[in-house]
Amino acid sequence: AQTVTQSQPEMSVQEAETVTLSCTYDTSESDYYLFWYKQPPSRQMILVIRQEAYKQQNATENRFSVNFQKAAKSFSLKISDSQLGDAAMYFCAYRNAGSNYKLTFGKGTLLTVNP
Amino acid sequence: GAVVSQHPSRVICKSGTSVKIECRSLDFQATTMFWYRQFPKKSLMLMATSNEGSKATYEQGVEKDKFLINHASLTLSTLTVTSAHPEDSSFYICSARADVNQPQHFGDGTRLSIL
Questions:
Q1: Of A71, B4, B6, B102, which sits most exposed with the smallest number of CB within 10 A?
Q2: Cβ A93 vs Cβ A106: under 8 Å
């Protein structure tokens, strides 16, 4: 079974600074997807960024980028120029490529942004 | 795009009542919908996966007769918590996916409180 580990229960960053959230996963599959989701206090889960395992290039979405290390099974999220609105719970998630495969979530990292 | 609407956002009811939660994909057809349960400060726990027109696939430990899931159309899935009791109080979140190559998009969640 796949597992996703987020070793940082809480992180904090100063506004405008950069922060990196860690995620490691365990799988025997070669084809899969990785995701970072954000859940602000309003509670709706929002997709931040996704990465296909077969792509070597790290995904980037504006201020959000990932460092995908397939051999190390590591998938960290970097948030640049942090904003107050970035404060949320961040979940790393894994999914096998295929038909009905479910998402496996990490336990989450609570990010606080200090003004 | 990729908007998922969940209704109601909050329900408070007496023990023994059955509660229905709706999940709609507003701008895409969702071949697969997922139902999650989230406890305070915890990650999401997948309850069941439903494909349009098929019976839902429940995760181990989730009572099928307790949590009835219907996915009658490509834009609507419902979760009915039957004869709800205080231990069923939780935050329930649905997500929807257009196809296997697309990420899951989440609804706003439903806060269920059973008195």
A1: A71
A2: yes
